[in-house]
Every structure is written in C-alpha cells, then in structure tokens.
Request: fold
Amino acid sequence: METPVRLCVVLPCYNEEDTLEYSIKTLGEELSALAAKGSISGGYRVVCVDDGSSDGSWPEICRLAQAYAGRVAGVKLSRNVGHQNAILAGLEWVARQDFCDAVVTMDADLQDDISAIGEMVEKFVRDGCDIVLGVRCSRKSDSLLKRHTARMFYDLMKNSHTPVVPDHAEYRLMSRRAVECLLQYGERNVFLRGIITSMGFKTAMVHYDRRPRRHGKSKYPLARMLNFAVEGITSFSIRPIRSIFLIGVVSLVLTLSVGIYVLAAILLGRTYPGWASLMLSLWFLGSLILIALGIIGEYIGKIYLEVKHRPRYFIEETVGGE
Ligand code: UDP
Ligand code: MG
Reply:
C-alpha cells in the first residue's frame, strides 16, 4: 500500500467512565507516534462504543470527542448488548464511514499492550495480512482463578473442535475487507474469536503482554465467563450433542452387564433387598438424562434465538462521525 494506512481503533465501553480519559490519551500518544513515523496516516480515529453504560461513560465520550475533535468518535447503543455485539456495532459503524483501511479492536481499559499495534499494522501493510491476532505471551497478570478457568476454557474449546487461538481475545487488526466479510455473518449469538479465525484470509499473530486493569473493575465475573464458554462451544460445535449418543451407548453397555450380574445373582439364589442399587441407578440415569436434556436445550435455545432474527443492537446517538 502506498499511502499510509488509515487506522481506526474500536473500544467497547461498558461503565468505563474512570478509564476513558487515560485510555484515549495513552492511545492517542501511541497512534500519533506511529503517524509521525509514517506507519499510519495522521487521520487515525478512535471509536468508543458505549454499550449501554449506567455510569457517565457517554458524557465522557462526548467530552473526549470534543477535546480530540477529528480523532475520537463515539457510538452510543440503546442498551447493554454485551462485549461481542458492542465490538460488532463499532465495526459496522466504522465500515459505513469513509475514514479507515484497517480496524484494531481492543478493550477500553488498555490492559492489552498498545505497542503491539505498530507490529499489527506492519503485518497488514508489509505482509498483506487481512487479520492480525494479538496473542498474550503469558497469563501472569491474571488472578489464579482466571488463569485456571481460561486454561479449562481453551481445553474445552480444543476438545469440541471450536476454532479459537489460545490466549487470543478481542485484540486484533482486521482489514476493511475482512470487516465487511465479518458483517455478513447473520447470527445473533456472536462469538467473534471463533468466527474470525474460521473466516480464512491471510492471518498472522503478534505476541504481547497484558497488564492488570488500572481503573474500574472487570465486567467478566465467573458466571459471565462460563456463559461465554458455553456460547463459544455451542456456536461452533455439535460435538456435545454427539457425545450424548456415546454416553447413551456406554450406559447401555453398563446396564447390560448389571443385568447379567443381577440374573446370575437370581440364578444362584443370592438376591439382595436391592434398595441401594435401585436408588443409585435411579440417580445415575436421572442425572444422565438431565445432562443430555441440558445440552440439547442449549442448542434448541440457540435455534430459538436465531430464528427470531432480532436486531443485535440499536444505535441511539453518535458523535464525531462524518
Ligand atoms: N464490555 C462491554 N460490554 C459488556 C461488558 C464489557 O462492552 O457488557 C467491555 C468493557 O468495557 C471492556 C471489555 O469489554 O472494554 C472487556 O471487559 P473487561 O475489561 O471488564 O474484561 P476482562 O479484561 O476483565 O476480561
Ligand atoms: Mg479488562
């Protein structure tokens, strides 16, 4: 590419009032340094997507859009639609504007090392990669709980053949073309890191270190992380449904051997009152049925949400667009 890349950075923001000033300032410095080096064009933009925050995030975004006029833009969603949809809303909005060749998405708290942006741009410009994934070098900055649950999450993803790159979250660069292709996916339950890694196109990785959060607190407590893991697996894999059949076959084999044992006991005249075994098998089979129903329910629930084809989000207000 001959002219410098026009870069946009999309930041999903949910109750990030305390973080935004620091994030925009720090990001602005980094992007200005890249522009000064000629890696990106001076007309870069940072787009903050307010994901239905209940704090003062939106007034703060408006204030920053004024203070950094032409550099910072804002998109306010009508309600909280979640991290994934907020990113998608930002990407869709950016794709409608005429100021960008490539988009970087990252969390608004700048936990991800922004110095990797330069390397991402290089891979886009020099190597012609449409997708550049930011991958964490280590999880040292995470709590013990987060580290272990993340490991379990990626193992589960791998075993259920869900296409994710371990330790890559939402920090990535996408070319305008890749964004336009991403926007063609019509599903309501978006699991971006799975969709994007399964899209094809020339893809590269950039490794970086993640810092602890400076302001505010994490919006991903354990329950939300578990929900996200289930979303991820059921968005991409029907293996859990298949495994129900296998579990059924195994328990049938077990039942047959129990049957043979019981028959032998009767023939030998060694019958027992049987209460314990009856109770045990009742509970065992009961739990298998419940697990199986739960997994099927998860997929049926997904079908239910998808067939309604409801809009993912509504944009209530924007600031700093064209
Ligand atoms: N976020 C969002 N909508 C939500 C929850 C989170 O847009 O419903 C944003 C949040 O503002 C942040 C990013 O998603 O920019 C990641 O959230 P957080 O930093 O709380 O997650 P963690 O780093 O703890 O995994
Ligand atoms: Mg964070």
Notes: Residues 239-307 form one domain. Strands lie at 7-13, 45-50, 72-77, 102-105, 131-136, 168-175, 203-208, 315-319. The two ends are 24 Å apart (CA to CA). The first strand starts at residue 7 and ends at 13.
